[in-house]
Write a structure and sequence with these properties.
By secondary structure, this protein is an alpha/beta fold. The protein has helices at about 60-65, 90-95, 110-115, 120-125, 140-150, 165-175, 190-195, 200-210, 230-240, 260-265, 280-290; strands at about 5-15, 20-25, 45-50, 70-75, 75-80, 100, 105, 130, 155-160, 180-185, 215-225, 250-255, 295-300. The protein contains eleven helices and 13 strands. Strands 7-1-2-8-9-10-11-12-13 form a nine-stranded mixed beta sheet. A hairpin with a 2-residue loop joins strand 4 (about 70-75) and strand 5 (about 75-80).
Length: about 300
């Protein structure tokens, strides 16, 4: 039975494709974007977070852990990640919520059951299901199986992706997808590598491939002042998108710092000191520049 790791299922989503949607967030991403708003989706496996500042020293987790992965310590308790089997019993008994698990392994049927619950809302709003992340293409077998399951239910299927995958996987997914929300972060290969950890070569080739195949595509551009909002990059981006057959829709996603607390909770390094929120004036200028290339632009998902 095909299984995959997800970290959230969001109901009544309205920014991840047309209509009211259920968005399934896959865990794991091959990129490490400095401005990522879902850092809990970067690693591909289930994660345990031991929030020592919340520990009240009751010892309940120590008593119940079947692996003896938790031991007494001066500051409450010590957690040994190498012994943990992700059974989650510590989180279930902790009265202070000092133990937290991010991500869970689910079958296709289990995810489909959650999606089916909201079919009435999809029907009323011309909505559907969106697979996001992380990067859903990093779990291709799980993604394809879910797309097939949703296809049997005649649901509109959207995949939110960085496009960083092999062409064979992309085409297999495209055969089962009505709309791609395709992220385009930077046109310069070296700057793209610096800010995301990978080159953009494969991403650009795959976007052209999808466009030539007639896939439904909305290009989404995160706007990060100091990273990709300069005139040269915006003009290069607009010129590239305007050459893609059938691609007219662009969504701009201005950077914001609402996810900063996630990094602190995860203990994950944050590079936001080198990124900034673009001004309203700059965003308006970028909209005008893109529209001058015949593109239809909106701000937000």
């Amino acid at each position: 039975m095909i299984q995959g790791v997800i970290f959230d299922i969001k109901k009544y989503a309205i920014h991840d494709g047309p209509g009211i949607r259920t968005t399934v967030f896959f865990k794991g991403c091959p990129l490490s974007c400095w401005w990522c708003h879902n850092p809990e989706g970067l690693t591909p496996t289930e994660q345990h977070i031991h929030r020592k500042d919340r520990c009240i020293g009751c010892g309940d987790c120590i008593k119940i852990c079947p692996q003896n992965a938790i031991a007494p310590a001066n500051n409450g308790s010590f957690f040994d990640e190498t012994k943990c089997i992700r059974c989650r019993t510590c989180a279930q008994v902790c009265p202070a919520e000092a133990h937290e698990f991010i991500g869970q392994t689910l079958t296709v049927d289990a995810v489909a059951e959650e999606i089916i619950k909201d079919i009435v809302f999809y029907d009323q709003s011309n909505g559907g299901v969106t697979f996001s992340g992380g990067e859903p293409l990093l779990q291709p077998d799980f993604l394809v199986a879910l797309l097939d399951a949703c296809g049997k239910l005649d649901l509109h299927r959207t995949v939110d992706t960085s496009g960083y995958t092999d062409a064979e996987t992309l085409m297999k997914v495209a055969e089962r997808t009505e709309l791609f929300l395709y992220d385009l972060k930077h046109m310069d290969a070296e700057k793209h590598r610096r800010h995301t950890g990978v080159s953009n070569e494969r991403i650009l080739v795959n976007l052209e491939l999808l466009a030539r195949k007639g896939a439904g595509i909305c290009v989404r551009i995160p706007l990060i002042a100091g990273v990709n909002t300069d005139d040269e990059n915006i003009s290069h981006t607009a010129d590239f998108i305007s050459t893609l057959p059938g691609v007219k829709h662009v969504s701009l996603l201005p950077f914001h710092s609402s996810a900063q607390g996630k990094y602190a909770r995860l203990g994950t390094p944050c590079f936001w000191s080198e990124a900034a929120v673009p001004s309203v004036r700059d965003v308006a200028a970028i909209v005008g520049r893109l529209e001058s290339f015949g593109l239809q632009v909106k701000i937000g998902g």
